[in-house]
Amino acid sequence: MSAESPGQKNGFKSFFSNALRPKKSRQTLRKGSRSTTDLRLAARSSVDEAPPMPELAPLHAHRLKYRELHAQVDSQLGERRDYTEIIHTLGASDLNDVSAPTHEQNDHRPPGESDVASLPLKLWAQIAGYLNPAEAASLAMASITLYRRLGPRYLMALDHPDNHTHKINFLSNLDISLPHHLLCFPCIQYHRRTQEGTERIRPSHVLNPLFNCPNLRNALKPPPRHRITHGRNLPFTFVQLAMRAHRFGPSYGLAPDALGRRWQRDNWSHTSRFHIHEGRLLMRVTSQTFAAPALTPSAQRMLLYSREDYCPYFSTCAHWRDGELMPACKCALEHIPRPRSNGGLQTLEHRVKDRIAGQTFDPNALTTLCGFCRPMRRCPECPTEYLIEIKLSEDLVDRRFKQSIVITRWSDIGDGTTPDGIEWGAINGKRDDYDSFAHYARRGIASIFEAAFTADTLPGQRVVSLNPKKKKLGEEGNKWY
User: Fold this and answer.
1) Is it the case that residue 465 has pLDDT exceeding 60?
2) pLDDT of residue 337
3) Where is this region: Disordered (predicted)?
4) Does residue 235 lie within any of the structural domains?
5) Which long-range contacts (CB under 8 A, 24 or more apart) does 251-254 make?
6) Does residue 285 contact residue 272 with C-beta atoms inside 8 Å?
7) Same domain, 166 and 276
């Protein structure tokens, strides 16, 4: 409203009345008004013009359309296959779990004896000629029809002395069907277990037969065994029992925890433990004894070696003479703190030096090893690792703490199928084709073993070669003694 318009009132009251007057755009719509009718018509028209809702979700509709466009027909089977769906199925499924469907298919498949019998004898003989004796014998024993075609000649060929290893491999495949028997390697046949479920590792001087074998006391055919420590062996039959129970079930053998033992001999205490990792049996043996400070070289030999066979009291592999295992043990013994003399002037001198250095002398202080004896050693010719430590241990007889040397050994024993295996033959010194740094390049045996039992890890240790110069002198070398 302009200033010249009639009816304008000047003043304070008129100013507030005009300021608080509602605008026309804020006035409420009334029933029957033209604006309300226009809004309703616009809403109805927008609803009528909206596109219809799809029956399927957009992603599902895209999948159906993609399958229709990219479906392919297999030229041999006549099936329509979507290769993208096959790849996604392979990624989501477990490829290792193939045993259950295979057994179901084998149970419901039609008999194939007629197809086997339709092939000529010369063809089956030619097929068997490409196989080794163990595989040819397994083919002949696959069914009665194959046995009639191939005959017993492939089974009789296993008795030849040159096929000794093939016969063991053939008989090892029968473990799954003989839970109450064990394969005897001196006899190369199965024997009935006499201590089923109660087998235990005994000392080497105790006769502990697990089955009745005619070659039990035959020194010309000793059973395969591995030396653990002085007076303790690990027969290969216990490796069989542990791996059979792992592969087929508890009724076939023993759990790995049942093989562990604790024993003492010649002032040494030993603890053994076993673990199965990726189808192979791992062993850890920890040996320790109290060690006095300032030992002479002859006293160190008396502490470390047995007087019976001049082998170490602790657990070692067959290559312990070659390399730096024994020099590292002697170096660790020299790091034990030596006691000080009780002379008056020398005692005063030591006190003054300790006061200047700000420290006190403690004969039971924690011992720090040097760069030569501290690292973990790995044998390059077999799967074995060693760790040498100097620790404080409690002597229950004197009731005080003493310094002790602790030597821990980790080894990979193998799969337990045959004593001719690469791991078992390597730790016993019967194979020269094993490279431990190639087999355990990324992770050590000790790390694998300790990670299975505890969340704590070993202190960071360098892993160096037990025999860096690769010299094989054996008993001819004098460095080991």
Assistant:
1) yes
2) 82
3) 1-54, 94-115
4) no
5) 251/179, 252/175, 252/179, 254/197, 254/199
6) yes
7) no
- CA distances to 116, 145, 332 from 135, rounded to whole Å, are 17, 17, 52
Look at the pTM and tell me if it is higher than 0.85.
no
Structural domain includes residue 192: no
Question: What does the H/E/C string look like for 185-234?
Answer: CCCCEEEEECCCCCCCCCCCCCCCCCECCCCCCCCCCCCCEEEEECCEEE
CA distances from 398 to 56, 251, 395, 402 (A): 84, 46, 6, 10
Q: Are residues 274 and 420 in the same domain?
A: yes
Q: Is residue 315 part of a domain?
A: yes
Residues 317 and 454 in one domain: yes
Q: How many CB atoms lie within 10 A of CB 67?
A: 13
Q: Encode 389-402: b = buried (16+ Cβ within 10 Å), e = exposed.
A: bbeeeeeeeeeeeb
The CA-atom distances, in angstroms, between 260 and each of 178, 180, 189, 285 are 25, 23, 28, 9
The answer on pLDDT for 105 being more than 70 is no
Residue 376 contacts residue 334 (beta carbons within 8 Å): no
282 and 415 housed in the same domain = yes
In three-state secondary structure terms, 481 is coil
Residues 449 and 322 in one domain: yes
Q: Pairing state of beta strands 261-265 and 268-277? A: antiparallel
Give the pLDDT confidence of 24-50 residue by residue, as tens digits. Answer: 554 454 554 454 555 555 555 554 555
Place of tokens 């029933």: 31
Q: Are residues 167 and 302 located together in one domain of the fold?
A: no
Look up the domain containing 134 and give its range.
113-172
How many independent structural domains does the chain possess?
2
Q: Report, as an integer, the average pLDDT of 227-233.
A: 92
Q: Among 172, 197, 216, which residue terminates a domain?
A: 172
Query: Is 431 strand, coil or helix?
Result: coil
Pairwise CA distance, residues 225 & 163, whole Å = 22
Q: In 3D, which of 238, 233, 229, 228 has the Cα closest to residue 200?
A: 238
Give the largest CA-CA distance in the chain: 140
Question: Which of 172, 197, 218 is at the close of a domain?
Answer: 172
- What's the CA gap between 173 and 417, in Å, rounded? 9
Residue 132 forms part of a structural domain: yes
Q: What residues pair up with 261 in beta bridges, in sequence order?
A: 272
